[in-house]
UniProtKB/TrEMBL annotation, chain A:
GO terms for molecular function: metal ion binding. SUPFAM superfamilies: Fumarate reductase respiratory complex transmembrane subunits. This is Succinate dehydrogenase, cytochrome b556 subunit. Gene3D superfamilies: Fumarate reductase/succinate dehydrogenase, transmembrane subunit (1.20.1300.10).
Automatic annotation (TrEMBL), chain B:
The keyword rRNA-binding does not apply. Keywords: Membrane, Transmembrane, Transmembrane helix. The chain crosses the membrane at residues 54-75, 96-117. It comes from Candidatus Glassbacteria bacterium RIFCSPLOWO2_12_FULL_58_11. This is Succinate dehydrogenase. It comes from the Bacteria. One of its GO terms (cellular component) is membrane.
Amino acid sequence: MKFFQLEPKTHANYLGVKGWAYGGRYGIERYLYTLQRVTGLGVLLYLPMHLIVTSQKLNQAGWEQVMGLVARGLLPFGEFLVFVGGVFHAFNGIRLLLTHFGFLMAQPARPIYPFTVAALKQRWAVYLVFVMTTVVVGYGAWEFLIVAHH
Amino acid sequence: MRESTLWLFHLLAGAVLLTVLGVHYGVMHLSNLFGIDHATVLSFSSVSGRSGRFFYLVVYLVLLPAALYHGLYGLRSLIFELSFIGLVLRRWISRILILSGSGFLIYGAYAIIAGFLG
């Protein structure tokens, strides 16, 4: 006697870690999701180092020594990159928060031809994330490059 | 605690960070915009002057736990998405993250409070 197989067919996770980065033909939002993770990890990796460095403020000699160390080579540029990542993460985070609670989502509708792409309803928010990030990072870059290194 | 509650805390911590990290970034990276001299913003007198103010004490004491929770919970979610992480390993990862987060919280809070008290 033959029984039906009740277990659903599963597929091997053949993309593995690459699946985090590769979104195939999904929209730009899928790649912003990856970028959100990359920038979040970057800021998180920086946090313990930042805590150790800033805790040196308790005495002047220690502070001046550590500030001398972090001003060397590419470290100030690396710190600026953390700023860029943090700004993007924040603006994209606002978009994700609003989407998560349904504020930027399209209303459910019958699929009547010609079909509309629901994701396009919140595409303006994606562009706004880029604009806001560019404005804040642009000002920060001006201060970093012109004012601080004048 | 339920996963949905932890996720809600993650979102709340993110919302809190938008405000307090905004203050931190404003002072450190957009200082000219707020009338602070960028050239001296990292000098010892400027840093210890800010540390002694009640406003910055509150900002940093809110920022520290919010940043640690938001960051470490985000990392935990990312690790847990890997299909080969089993239940036992998940528990150990959570414990390690709670322990390291608590350690950094105590260390950071000590520096903030000691900086305020001078």
